[in-house]
Amino acid sequence: MEPRTEPRIDVHLLTLNEPAEWREACIGSRAFCQSTLVRKLNAEDYAGVCAELLRWRFIQGKDCALPANARLCGGLATRRQSEYRQCIGEAP
User: Fold this and answer.
1) How many Å is the Cα radius of gyration of the chain?
2) What is the CATH number of the domain that holds 59?
3) What's the structural domain count of the chain?
4) What is the residue range of 63's domain?
């Protein structure tokens, strides 16, 4: 696989499926590019990147990990947990 970079990401993304998938989690690419996740990625703090995935669980200010919001967006919290496990090298 050829190394590739995305705008504002300074490290090569050899192990990620598609960089666009990372941006999909945010409100817009500006939010993504200015995120702690990207700062940690650029610092090659991969464990920190994985941990940041768990923080990207809000929709319209609602915490999708809370049972009270499960009907609205519970699937997002479940997906972030799955992405986190995959990021740290556990089976999907």
Assistant:
1) 13
2) 1.10.530.40
3) 1
4) 19-87
CA-closest candidate to residue 56, choices 91, 29, 27, 89: 27
Report how far residue 82's alpha carbon sits from residue 35's, in angstroms, rounded to the nearest whole number. 20
Q: Are 9 and 42 in contact (CB under 8 A)?
A: yes
What pLDDT digit, counting tens, does each position of 10-24 carry? 555 544 444 445 545
Beta bridge partners of 62: 59
pLDDT digits (tens, 9 = 90+) for 33-89: 788 988 898 888 989 999 999 998 999 999 999 999 999 998 999 999 988 998 888
Inter-residue contact 8 to 33 (CB < 8 Å): yes
Positive or negative: CA dihedral 62, 68, 72, 76: positive
The pTM for the full model equals: 0.67
| Higher pLDDT pick, 52 / 31 | 52
